[in-house]
Design a protein that fits this description.
Blueprint lengths: L14 H4 L26 H11 L5 E7 L1 E2 L11 E2 L4 H19 L9 E8 L7 H14 L2 E11 L6 H10 L3 E7 L3 H7 L5 H12 L4 E8 L6 H14 L4 E6 L7 H7 L9 H17 L3 E4 L2 E3 L7 H6 L4 E5 L4 E4 L2 E5 L3 H9 L5 E6 L8 H11 L14 H13 L3 E2 L8 E2 L1 H5 L1 H13 L5
Parallel strand pairs: 1-4, 1-11, 2-3, 4-5, 5-6, 6-7, 7-8
Antiparallel strand pairs: 8-10, 9-10, 12-13, 13-14, 15-16
Helix pairs in contact: 3-4, 4-5, 8-10, 13-16
Length: 450
């Protein structure tokens, strides 16, 4: 039987780097991310889709459109597939429009019975599509599906080539959110990552897009090779003071073996990846300066400075959301059926032209068991950057649970009243929140004496 002290954090004057032992995280090689199609005996999309579409009417519904084309391969990115060609936009748009219409035809008797909560254009670089082409795809989705009046409609992309004219046209068509892969604001660091726009050029684009009335959000990375705390402080200051973005996602850079970044480091073209303590301090620097810059940390990876910014797609995508995929190399699910469209653009094209849903892989994807009890309370609390209030814990563990939370507070990981409505994470606590969640699940799974 484990003792209560086995779950305690280490006491130190630097909980950000010392609260627990570092867990080594390994990423799969890039080639290993591609999985072969699995055998499927459940019929064609046309045969199973209407019933699968109606099987989970209580679940959120999303439409995901993938645009697997990029101007060039950024060094840190594992998702590059096809290079953007001069004439790709019109051809790919024609395929998307046909796929959308054909999919809607398959679902014609049921599509109106569920409202769409989220539309997300991911990639690749969706903003490489021409202005009128993307607008026509957005309008087609609205024409063929029942889109909720408050649906979040996001177009993901990069600064280069994303003009104000494009943004305004896409807002007029129905988009209300733009997600830009900024990664860093520092010009020199951006260029090393393969980002073409300077800090000032990127900032100007962000502000022009904000003028369209859409919610503009960015990705900000920490743990980049060559990134210092001084660079990160200045990046956050610039973002906070010189741009009108509504929110951002803060991510740790994960390097995939065999990626251009990995190869550049091996050849000495870029500095090595920062070690764990340095990454932790970079996170702490970003966290504290975002708070000082007026951003609210309202979900595990997302920050905002306007209540209208919901980050709905990111919050739903990891759950049991039904998601209809469109475009080459897209992923989704309907009920207990996992769907992946053809990754190879030639195969995708041929299938769409034949009038087929261009699925390269169909799998059984059982839904996770609906969580109940403390597991559910834990997920709900962590989604709002808190731990469950003690009155939500199993009766037999409330005394020992109170002692554990008190120790974590003393170690600098939690703040607030142990017996209050749910203690919040400190900066260090959130950095270790995944470990703490794992420990709480173990704590509840086996009796731990007070």
């Amino acid at each position: 039987m484990r003792e209560l002290s086995d779950f305690f954090a280490r006491m130190s004057d630097d909980p950000l780097t010392m609260a627990f032992e570092e867990e080594k995280k390994t990423m799969p090689p890039m080639a290993g991310m591609r999985r072969e199609p699995s055998p499927w005996n459940g019929g064609t999309f046309a045969e199973f889709a209407p019933q699968a579409f109606m099987a989970g009417q209580q679940r959120p519904l999303a439409l995901y459109v993938h645009v697997p084309f990029c101007h060039h391969h950024c060094t840190f990115c594992p998702f590059y597939i096809n290079q953007t060609k001069k004439d790709f936009s019109a051809k790919y748009t024609a395929l998307l429009l046909k796929e959308i219409a054909d999919t809607a035809e398959v679902l014609k008797d049921v599509a109106h019975k569920r409202k769409v909560d989220v539309i997300y254009f991911g990639g690749g670089t969706p903003t490489d599509l021409e202005k009128d082409d993307m607008a026509s795809v957005i309008r087609s989705l609205f024409d063929h599906f029942d889109i909720s009046p408050d649906a979040e409609v996001t177009v993901e992309g990069r600064n280069t080539g994303f003009t104000a004219e494009k943004g305004q046209a896409w807002v007029t068509a129905g988009a209300n959110r733009f997600s830009i892969g900024l990664q860093a604001a520092n010009t020199q660091l951006r260029k090393k990552l393969g980002r073409l726009a300077s800090r000032e050029e990127a900032g100007a684009t962000l502000n022009e897009l904000a003028d369209t009335g859409a919610s503009v959000v960015i990705d900000l990375l920490y743990g980049l090779p060559g990134q210092t705390e001084e660079i990160l402080i200045e990046d956050v200051r610039y973002i906070s003071e010189q741009t009108r973005i509504a929110g951002l996602d803060l991510y740790e850079l994960r390097m995939f073996p065999g990626s251009p970044l990995d190869k550049a480091i091996e050849r000495g073209k870029m500095p090595p990846m920062p070690e764990f303590p340095e990454k932790a301090r970079l996170f702490g620097t970003a966290y504290k300066n975002l708070i000082a810059g007026g951003f609210e940390h309202f979900s595990p990876r997302h920050w905002r400075r306007t209540p209208n910014e919901r980050s709905l797609y990111n919050r739903l995508a990891g759950g049991q959301t039904d998601m209809i995929p469109f475009g080459s190399a897209a992923g989704g699910r309907l009920g207990t059926i996992g769907l992946s469209t053809a990754r190879d653009i030639k195969s995708y094209t041929e299938m769409v032209e034949r009038g087929e849903k261009p699925l390269g892989r169909i799998t059984e994807a059982p839904l996770a068991v609906e969580k109940t009890g403390f597991d559910k309370e834990l997920d709900m609390a962590f989604e709002t950057i808190r731990v469950p209030a003690i009155d939500k814990w199993p009766d037999s563990l409330r005394e020992s649970g109170s002692l554990l939370l008190a120790q974590w507070k003393k170690a600098g990981l939690l703040e607030g009243d142990v017996n209050g409505p749910g203690m919040g994470f400190t900066c260090a606590g959130f950095y270790w929140s995944s470990r703490m969640k794992k420990l709480l699940l173990e704590f509840v799974a086996e009796p731990v004496p007070a």
